[in-house]
Design brief:
The chain is built from 6 helices and 5 strands. The chain is of the alpha+beta class.
Length: 244
Amino acid sequence: MAEEDKNEKPQKGAKPTLTPEQEAEAAAKKAARAEAKAKGGKGGGKGKGGGASQEVAMERVRRTGPARLRKVYDTEIRGKLISEFSLKNPMEAPRLMKITINMGLGEAVTNPKVLDTAVESLGAITGQRPVVTKAKKSIAVFKLRGGQKIGAMVTLRRDQMFEFLDRLVSYALPRVRDFKGISPKSFDGRGNYTLGIREEIIFPEINYERLEKPKGMNITFTTTARTDEQGRALLRHLGMPFRN
């Protein structure tokens, strides 16, 4: 009987018995593979969808409370706007709805690799994956075809919007060379404001050594203000350094 037991082969499809230590090691390896796949895409970050150029700081932070500037608006700024414009209904107080950051890249027509660095930079600045914008129509003079990728855009709302604005007015804008404030005239007549940034290196998230050529961007602040005066007052209370 002993010889028969030795000669018996395990049934096909039967799983080998693992010790508790082996089971724990296998579970740890499985979790590590799942995490690497989630970060780098298929192929562990190699091939399509991988590579360091595609790794962007876009994971949303787990917050324990609202953004600092949002709390300031709710507790202080809203009351100041109501009294400043003699508003009867508190809901009439102008507020910030969204911030849109747009980066146009004319060089992408002849050098598509410029778009990859722009997406990486814009994602690092905003903490959100950018949307690649395409040309709506063909323009022969600029050698532009309809549907060609020519830029990147990000739209921020809620806490991410307030956090970006807080970093912009507290740290980024003061780093502009010979900064004397921003123009108070770039409103559209309906309380919305657009700010032009010549170089992205004013943001601390940008690594200057890896940057081939500084790129500019347009930042649009969309508000619920009915007039430019209300929109200007809202942004001024939020910390925008307008020139006198």
